[in-house]
Structure formats: structure tokens, C-alpha cells
């Protein structure tokens, strides 16, 4: 299979041009066609010589994302199930806020982390996405928004998969997204979320970016976290916390802790107090997420009163906390749900 053109950063495209006897500035023109004009084939790139367009067409492919399903919520959220070239499927979600449009992208087909409350892990990990397949989710969504003059202004890497287990592709994707000659999305408007892949957290610390880091924590101690997140047995709670303390000390940037509240499991005031004790003194913020019901999982949602009590305990301990506003609740918004339904119907 030909490599995807979206797999290449601007620097890599400049190298390719030089290797193929073309002036380096052609890479900038190509980049503009891909990310500013957002054309879908090389033939449309009219300021490139015809021979170069043919060469590009011979050597590269555009990522083809086939729309399998598109669900639109009453709140404006749009969830896509896209088919890939090898018959796998991925989810991408576009969310509308009063401050702009955000997109939640996927980095892997499936997931091997094994969080017991998440639909993404059903069926395990099939493969990593290439950088270009992650890029294509944003470009495709932006092409659809172009029709109404809207723009994607922020990105969350919180879809299916663990981005820090597909580290190089994730970073190549990010470099393309933030490039001033491309989509030019502000670094502080991008958040990458990890379940706690400790070596990659240290690696990310050295990237010298302004991109936000979020950690899926979901428990205040080793024993409970290992039950909910098997990855904790590979990278124990204290090792994860130590890597985050290092990140904060080195970068001066705040970490967001994502905490899915699960009825009767991790949502009691004593859990909140234990979490506050762990986080005390850290430059951080806690985002409480009422867990979505997944039919294949046994967990139930935390009651409204208990959610607010959990938040109050954190606030009394001077921990910054918010409760995530639910979006797309009426369209199988939980990560992996739409793909899981598709896998089930395909199997039948």
C-alpha cells in the first residue's frame, strides 16, 4: 500500500521534495493544499507542476475515511463511525460549545488497556493508527464544517486507544495540527489524555510543548485502580504520580486528572478525601466524569447528589474540580459504544 500523504509533517515533505529533485518551497504549497484549502486529490493542486502532481499521485494515497454511521445529538454533538481501508472502524466526535467546536480523535483501532468500565476495550487492540489516519479525522470533520463556515478550534485526544502507546504517530499528528501553515490550532487548545504510560509521560515532558496533559486516574489508590484499570499493574499508581510530579516541576504546567465516577465503586466521600490527600499541593485540576452506562459492563452511574458531594469534598481540600458537562448522551456517546455495536452487527 502507498503511504498516506497526511503521514508526513512539513519538514518530511520538504525532505521528500529535495530527494525528488523539487525545490523545498513546493512542500509549503502542498501543505497549503492539504490543510488550508483541504482538497481531496492531487490533481486539484493547480499551482504544482503537472509532473509533480502525477509523481505525488503515484507515490502517495489520501486517507479514505468512509462514513459508516453519523449520529447527531440534540445538543449539536456529531458522532461519526468511519471505515478504514482494511475494514476496521473508528469513532470521531465533533462537539459544539459556546466557545467553539472541538473534536475528539481516536489513535488506535480498539484498545488493550482494559479499563473495566470502557467500551473501547471490547475486542481488544486491533492495530495502531498511522499519523495520517489521525490527521484525516480532523481534516474530514473540518471539510464537513467548511460547508457552514465553522471551524474546529480545539482537539482532545481522548477517543479509543491509548495515544502514548502509539507515541510517535500521536506526536507527528500533533506537529501537523499546530503548524502555523496548516490548521494552526493553538497548542493550549489541544489536550492529550493517557491512562498512565509512565515512560511516555517522561518523554512527553521533554517535548517542550504547550499542549495540555490529562491523566485517567479513576481511583485514589493502587488496589482500586488495579481493579478498574489493569494497566496499573504495569505502571503502579505511585510511579504514575511520580512521573506527573516530574512533569509539573519541569514544565510548570497544570495536569488534569480525569476521574470517572462509578456508582458504589469509587464515588464515596472517603474516596474523594483520599484523592484530595494524594493531590494536595500539586498544580492540578480534577474533572469528574459521571460514567456512561455500557450494556456489556456491570457498572451504574453515580447519583447526582453523590457527584456533587464528591466535588464538595475536593473543594474543601482546595482541589480545583469541575463536573464534565455531558454531551451526546442520546447518541451512544461513550467511547467505543458505536464501534462495539458495529462489530456486533457485522459479526451477526
Automatic annotation (TrEMBL):
Oxidoreductase as UniProt keyword: no
EC code: 2.1.1.192
Catalysed reactions, semicolon-separated: adenosine(37) in tRNA + 2 reduced [2Fe-2S]-[ferredoxin] + 2 S-adenosyl-L-methionine = 2-methyladenosine(37) in tRNA + 5'-deoxyadenosine + L-methionine + 2 oxidized [2Fe-2S]-[ferredoxin] + S-adenosyl-L-homocysteine; adenosine(2503) in 23S rRNA + 2 reduced [2Fe-2S]-[ferredoxin] + 2 S-adenosyl-L-methionine = 2-methyladenosine(2503) in 23S rRNA + 5'-deoxyadenosine + L-methionine + 2 oxidized [2Fe-2S]-[ferredoxin] + S-adenosyl-L-homocysteine
Any Pfam family the entry gives: RlmN_N
GO CC term (a single one): cytoplasm
SUPFAM superfamilies: Radical SAM enzymes
Keywords: 4Fe-4S, Cytoplasm, Disulfide bond, Iron, Iron-sulfur, Metal-binding, Methyltransferase, rRNA processing, S-adenosyl-L-methionine, Transferase, tRNA processing
GO molecular-function terms, A-Z: 4 iron, 4 sulfur cluster binding; metal ion binding; rRNA (adenine(2503)-C2-)-methyltransferase activity; rRNA binding; tRNA (adenine(37)-C2)-methyltransferase activity; tRNA binding
Record-stated family: Belongs to the radical SAM superfamily. RlmN family.
Protein name: Probable dual-specificity RNA methyltransferase RlmN
Organism: Paenibacillus protaetiae
Amino acid at each position: 500500500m502507498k503511504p498516506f500523504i497526511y503521514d508526513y509533517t512539513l519538514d518530511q515533505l520538504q525532505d521528500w521534495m529535495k530527494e525528488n529533485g523539487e525545490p523545498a518551497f513546493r512542500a509549503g504549497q502542498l501543505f497549503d493544499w492539504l490543510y488550508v484549502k483541504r482538497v481531496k486529490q492531487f490533481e486539484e493542486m493547480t499551482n504544482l507542476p503537472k509532473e509533480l502532481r502525477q509523481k505525488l499521485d503515484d507515490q502517495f494515497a489520501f486517507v479514505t475515511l468512509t462514513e459508516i454511521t453519523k449520529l447527531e445529538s440534540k445538543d449539536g454533538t456529531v458522532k461519526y463511525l468511519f471505515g478504514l481501508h482494511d475494514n476496521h472502524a473508528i469513532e470521531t466526535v465533533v462537539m459544539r460549545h459556546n466557545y467553539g467546536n472541538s473534536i475528539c480523535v481516536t489513535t488506535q483501532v480498539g484498545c488493550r488497556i482494559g479499563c473495566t468500565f470502557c467500551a473501547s476495550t471490547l475486542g481488544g487492540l486491533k492495530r495502531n493508527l498511522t499519523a495520517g489516519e489521525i490527521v484525516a479525522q480532523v481534516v474530514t470533520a473540518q471539510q464537513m464544517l467548511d460547508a457552514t463556515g465553522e471551524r474546529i478550534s480545539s482537539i482532545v485526544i481522548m477517543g479509543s486507544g491509548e495515544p502514548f502507546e502509539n507515541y510517535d504517530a500521536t506526536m507527528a499528528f500533533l506537529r501537523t495540527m499546530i503548524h502555523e501553515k496548516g490548521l494552526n490550532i493553538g497548542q493550549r487548545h489541544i489536550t492529550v489524555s493517557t491512562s498512565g504510560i509512565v515512560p511516555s509521560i517522561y518523554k512527553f515532558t521533554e517535548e517542550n510543548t504547550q499542549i495540555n496533559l490529562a491523566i485517567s486516574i479513576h481511583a485514589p489508590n493502587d488496589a482500586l485502580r488495579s481493579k478498574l484499570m489493569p494497566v496499573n499493574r504495569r505502571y503502579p499508581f505511585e510511579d504514575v504520580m511520580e512521573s506527573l510530579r516530574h512533569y509539573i516541576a519541569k514544565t510548570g504546567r497544570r495536569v488534569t486528572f480525569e476521574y470517572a465516577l462509578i456508582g458504589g465503586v469509587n464515588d464515596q466521600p472517603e474516596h474523594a478525601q483520599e484523592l484530595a490527600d494524594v493531590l494536595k499541593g500539586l498544580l492540578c485540576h480534577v474533572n469528574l466524569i459521571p460514567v456512561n452506562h455500557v450494556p456489556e459492563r456491570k457498572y451504574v452511574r453515580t447519583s447526582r447528589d453523590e457527584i456533587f458531594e464528591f466535588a464538595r469534598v475536593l473543594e474543601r481540600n482546595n482541589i480545583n474540580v469541575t463536573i464534565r458537562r455531558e454531551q451526546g448522551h442520546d447518541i451512544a456517546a461513550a467511547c467505543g459504544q458505536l464501534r462495539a455495536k458495529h462489530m456486533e452487527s457485522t459479526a451477526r
